[in-house]
Amino acid sequence: MHYLFTALKKGRFWITPDPYHNDDNIQIGREVKISCQVEATPPEELTFSWLKNGRALRSSERMVITQTDPDISPGTTNLDIIDLKFTDFGTYTCVAALKGGGIPEISIDVNISSTTVPPNLTVPRGKSPLVTREGDTVELECLVSGKPKPIILWSRSDKEVPMPDGSMQMESYDGVLRIVNVSREMTGSYRCQTSQYNGFNVKPREAEVELIVQCE
Q: Which CDD domains match (predicted)?
């Protein structure tokens, strides 16, 4: 197959806590996995390297670097840290490049420290139900905490009903969903949910905001 162009885009990461413990925290003595993913064209030219605090990492018994089967999760590399130690805290960088070169690399920084914690999601007091009038602009808000802060996914609680823009799901980086020129049909319950992308690969946290649109 001949590609007319080459590209690297959509660099994302996620942190997977030790699967052998019930809580989602990162703790000394446990395992933690960092994964990063990019979209590459052509995919077979994609290469990855890992750095810690700017210095190259090599796969070892305690720092295991792998690349996921492209049929399962294309463009994905993993760094497994076995038996996490205090000295393992730092900034890990995943660098994606194409063998042929010619286009900039993508670097994704992931900080692992004692303050790296899974997300929490809440609706601010007084923000649900949210009452507005037709034609207004409204902002539905979910407060997201955690470090790193994940991408927030918004959808209708009735999964068969599309979002105001016609899609089934919308992304938000600050937890705010802005709707312009609201109509009566937009009345209903909206769900905000944490994504694994740029955050923790754990059971999603969810909350709901009720929107009531009144006639002018």
A: Ig
